[in-house]
Write a structure and sequence with these properties.
The chain has 115 residues and is mainly beta. The chain has no helices and 5 strands. A hairpin with a 4-residue loop joins strand 2 and strand 3. The structure holds zinc ion (ZN).
């Protein structure tokens, strides 16, 4: 693989991946702009090609009971070939343009360490 220098995606605290790729839909080595929301999520499924199902757990306040309930939501995200993820990994995803019917986020890197 050639070592094309990574683009500046505009999020300075995320380190670019060690590998390089030729994918035009890669935020680091292609043309894909990342803007909008930036989320941390856990990889729960990696069955589709270059796509991951991510799950996010958040707490929602229920005023009637004066306590929090645990809620989950799942999002689909594009995984560029230069980023290796496994099920169970915590990753940072950025919002991008719609890449497929249900995919509008892209994995930028793993969370943890420099985060
Ligand atoms: Zn790449």
């Amino acid at each position: 693989m050639s070592s094309k220098p990574a683009r500046n995606v505009g999020i300075p605290w995320i380190r670019p991946p060690a590998k390089s790729c030729e994918d035009p839909r890669c935020p680091w080595h292609g043309e894909l702009p990342v803007r909008g929301r930036l989320l941390r999520a856990t990889v729960v499924r990696l069955r589709a090609t270059r796509m991951a199902v991510l799950e996010r757990v958040y707490y929602h306040y229920r005023s009637k009971y004066m306590r929090y309930e645990r809620r989950r939501s799942r999002i689909h995200a594009y995984v560029p070939p230069c980023i290796d993820v496994k099920e169970g990994d915590s990753v940072i995803v950025g919002e991008a343009r719609p890449l497929a019917k249900s995919v509008a986020f892209v994995v930028l890197g793993k969370s943890g360490g420099a985060s």
